[in-house]
């Protein structure tokens, strides 16, 4: 699997773990969900942190590039979970964020 595809998929999985880890407490606090939601939320955030360690590049670069993929996954979450279709501007912003991720991850390094 090409490195950029592998990295992007790993970032996407990482983003899903982070969003779940934050969404479940949101359900508890804003929608009156069960406090038991905090257990899978904590697990998801632990998985999120672990997944970030699987990237071969420096932590700061990983976090910077991850942000671009996180934006796109959050827009997909907005659409699929919240039931709100992203606007053209959302999609343009997501494309720019992905371009930024690609530039950061593919830049030549010495």
TrEMBL record:
Hydrolase among keywords: no
Residues annotated as transmembrane: 33-51, 63-79, 91-108
Keywords noted in UniProt: Cell membrane, Membrane, Transmembrane, Transmembrane helix
CC annotations in GO: plasma membrane
Chief subcellular location: membrane
Keyword Zinc-finger: no
InterPro entries: EmrE-like, UPF0060
Topology in the lipid bilayer: Multi-pass membrane protein
Name of a matching Pfam family: UPF0060
Places the protein is found: Cell membrane
Similarity remark: Belongs to the UPF0060 family.
Annotated protein name in UniProt: Small multidrug resistance family-3 protein
Organism: Andreprevotia lacus DSM 23236
């Amino acid at each position: 699997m090409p490195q950029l595809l592998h990295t992007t998929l790993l970032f996407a999985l990482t983003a899903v773990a982070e969003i779940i880890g934050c969404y479940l407490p949101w359900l508890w606090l804003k929608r009156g969900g069960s406090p038991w939601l905090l257990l899978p939320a904590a697990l998801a955030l632990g998985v999120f942190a672990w997944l970030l360690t699987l990237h071969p590049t420096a932590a700061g670069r990983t976090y910077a590039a991850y942000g671009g993929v996180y934006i796109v996954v959050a827009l997909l979450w907005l659409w699929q979970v919240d039931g709100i279709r992203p606007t053209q501007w959302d999609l343009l912003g997501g494309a720019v964020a992905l371009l930024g991720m690609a530039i950061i991850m593919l830049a030549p390094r010495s």
